[in-house]
Amino acid sequence: MKYYLIIIFALISITTKSQLSLISFPKDNQLYPREENNTAKVSILGSYINSEAEKVVLQIFRNDSLKYTIDGPNENFDFNIFINAELSEYSFKLYYSKGNNLTLLKQANKILCGDVIVLYGQSNMVAGNGVDEFNATKSDKFMRNFDIVYGSNNQIIAENWYPAKSPYWGVGTIGNYLMLNFIDSLKIPFCVINGSVGGTGIDILSQRNDSNPKDPTFYYGKLLNRLYLSGLLDKVKYMAFLQGEAEAGNWYLSCNEYPGYFNNFIANVFDDIPSLKKFYEFQINIMKVGDGSNYVERAGYLRDFQRKTEEIYPDKITTLATVGTIPYDGVHFSDVAYQKLALDLSRLILRDLYGSLNINEIENPKVKYAYYNQTKTQITLVFQENQNVIYPADINYGDYTRSMRDFIYLTSDNTNVNYNQYNTPVINGTAFENTVTLNFAQPQTDLYITYLPASFSDFHSVTYNGPHISNGKGQRALSFYCMPILNAKPMENLIPNTPLNFAANGISQNQINISWNSNSSDDENYLIEISEDSLNFSLFTQIPSYQFSEQDINKLSNKKYFYRIKACNENGCSAFSQIVKAHTFKATKIDCPELLIKGILTKMNATFNSFFLKSSALIENSKIDFKALKSILLEPNFEFNPGNENPGVFTAQINGCE
User: Fold this and answer.
1) In sequence order, what are the beta bridge partners of 476?
2) pLDDT at 417
3) Top-confidence residue, 522 or 43
4) Looking at residue 421, what is its pLDDT?
5) Taken in order 224, 226, 231, 236, is the CA torsion positive or negative?
6) CA 551, 554, 556, 558 torsion: positive or negative?
7) Residue ranges with strand state E in 350-509
8) How confident is the model over 437-474, as pLDDT tens digits?
9) Is 606 helix (H, G, I), strand (E, B) or coil?
10) What's the pLDDT score for residue 602?
11) Helix segments in 235-334, DSSP class H
12) pLDDT at residue 2, rounded to an integer
């Protein structure tokens, strides 16, 4: 009897043998990043083997209504469907057909097309307060998250797309309300990838395996891996960062070390996410002191560096304030405060990347410089143009009053001086347009001015609860620490602007080419600094104002170098440019025989000596860049002819290369 049953089973398995092999198919809840034409391509690629199947059939649904049907061959089917960035969900059902009967092979539901936001930082970017309220009252129908579960040795156990409410706390309150604000304004779906880790210093968050940036051993690698496996890595346009409490609270790392780690981190971010257009950094709030043991004077220095990153990385970083965002317990914010931070951030992103016309005073006021009057009985703070700043009135809290004058400090020492915030000689202040004037009873001689305490707690409040300098829309000014006080109002434009388009590129195993553009009419020279770790810089060279490029030769092969530049004249120097990174080539010889290549002026691939050489040509430049691991401009033994009879065809002659 057993033998008889085994034979029957074998016959059935032979007659019903079928195999579905999928190379590409959407997953439930997946969000496809939209292209410039406001659509995304969904690729369904694979094969189906079944002797009874006549064809495969793909049905595409939009909001549960059948949109259209496509037929294809059983083997090697390849469907490319374009879906729109709109508030609609798409579904895909793949069948095999026999006569009039359809048998379902695979399906995917709730597919979206939209944009992606990346969040990173520590617990205030995790932003767990308010998640329960959001989950109970809001819909996440057009909001997505992608997450990975790791096992031992960082092996991937599962990777899935989810609605934003899953996994629990996966997106956070800032992420949730960012998406809601964008969906309300733009009417397209959104995805947030939040890689934040509570209580973590920038030294840990910025750790990176240079040979494999997506290495999940590190938090940064886990973030990149999520972006890569979700298919979003080359579509991220903006990223927001909220971190620094670990250092400002003196939990792990010194505040003095923060800038070096941040500069290395930001260089890696723009390298690893090449589509990134903008980085938004939150200046952290004033940390509570508690019992007094964790007072950190240099927390003011850290916040001041965060303020200045916008100057260090012009056009790349925008800084937002968190001071004055309430409720706040001295470390974390409430759900209402997180919603406010999401609103502030979304307004800037809508302006910068989506063309929103709501641009009036949506930025936090940022001080440009401070100067004494002739008698040194006044200091004027000058903020950026188009800000109507307000010097606040005293705030009465019932049993106590706070005055702005008590939280503006003068000092002649800008180093680590504990409690230098005791020197508060301001008697009152006034505001006009983008300036605040501070008045003193006696002439002052101090060299530096600080706005807001480094850390704070007193008998009345566990944390600083105001007042704040703000603008007409209530946006609070960024705090600053030990800003130099000029002896007179400077004439605008005397100090040159930071050079533009600073770039460094390795072109051989021992040479890096550096270039930039002037951003001022009164540059006298340029100072270029170099570093091997992005932390410790030294002067590389000084260049005259008429020169806009330089070569750094005799470098080590296969090595990374960092550069920055500033413009100077007799009145002073600009802020440094953003830090750029370049890598020299490996000491590898590419044997190039004489080659004659012809092709159409688009893209062409060829293989020579196990190296992939990719070429692209532009008629107006009359040159082709051949890439072998790195970009190589082949000259002088390189000729390019765009073709006389047919300008769309080129001929490239290579007579040898190294």
Assistant:
1) 470
2) 54
3) 43
4) 63
5) negative
6) positive
7) 367-372, 378-383, 389-390, 395-396, 401-402, 408-411, 426-432, 435-440, 448-451, 455-456, 470-471, 480-486, 500-506
8) 999 999 999 999 999 999 999 889 999 999 999 999 99
9) strand
10) 35
11) 245-248, 258-272, 299-312
12) 39
Q: How many Å apart are CA 400 and CA 55, to the nearest integer?
A: 81
Task: Return the structure tokens found at 304.
Answer: 């001041």
CA count, 13 A, side-chain hemisphere, 542? 6
Q: How many whole angstroms separate alpha carbon 241 and alpha carbon 341?
A: 12
Of the candidates 569, 565, 493, 571, the residue with the CA atom closest to the CA atom of residue 525: 569
**Does residue 274 have a cis bond before it (omega within 30 degrees)?**
no
Report whether 414 contacts 448 (CB < 8 A): yes
Pairwise CA distance, residues 52 & 197, whole Å: 53
Number of alpha carbons in the 13 Å side-chain half-sphere of residue 580: 23
Alpha-carbon separation of residue 37 from 114, 166, 648 (angstroms): 12, 30, 26
Contact (CB, 8 A) for 58 and 97:
no
Q: How far is CA 583 from CA 270, 379, 445, 510, 554, in A?
A: 15, 47, 48, 9, 13
CB distance 509 to 584 below 8 Å:
yes
Q: Which of 147, 165, 164 minimizes the C-alpha distance to 156?
A: 147
| Residue 302 · residue 255 · CB < 8 Å | yes
Distance CA 53, CA 56 (A): 8
Residues in the chain: 658
Radius of gyration of the chain measured on its C-alpha atoms: 30
**Digit-coded pLDDT (tens) for 575-614:** 888 888 888 887 644 444 444 444 443 333 332 222 223 3
Categorize the per-residue pLDDT at 642 as very low, low, confident or very high, splitting at 50, 70 and 90. very low
91 within 8 A of 61, measured Cβ to Cβ:
yes
Task: Look up tokens 């012809």; give the residue.
Answer: 598
Indicate the pLDDT class of residue 358, thresholds 50, 70 and 90: confident
**Token pair in block for residue 650:** 């080129």
Whether the CB-CB separation of 542 and 526 falls below 8 Å is answered with: yes
**Residues in contact with 439: Cβ distance below 8 Å, sequence separation at least 6, in sequence order:** 377, 378, 426, 427, 428, 429, 430
CA distances (Å), origin 237, targets 61, 147, 163, 348, 564: 29, 19, 21, 13, 24
**Any idea which residue has 């949506």 for tokens?**
362
User: The tokens of 172 are what?
Assistant: 């956070």
Q: How far apart are CA 66 and CA 560, in angstroms?
A: 54
Buried b / exposed e over 524-554, threshold 16 CB at 10 Å, is ebbbbbbbeebeebeebeebebeeeebebee
d(CA 202, CA 254): 11
Let me know: does 188 contact 117? Beta carbons within 8 Å.
no
Whose CA is closest to 179, among 64, 332, 349, 355? 349
What are the structure tokens assigned to 467, written together?
A: 């007042």
Using an 8 Å Cβ cutoff, are 273 and 432 in contact? Answer: no
d(CA 149, CA 153): 12
Q: Please report, for the chain, how many H helices and E strands are present, in that order.
A: 10, 42
Q: What are phi and psi of 635, to 5 degrees?
A: -155, 155
- Give the C-alpha separation, 12 to 84, whole Å: 44
- DSSP letter for each residue of 84-99: ESSS--EEEEEEEEET
Query: Model pTM?
Result: 0.77
Q: Where are the alpha helices (DSSP H) in 567-619?
A: none
Longest dimension (CA), the chain: 112
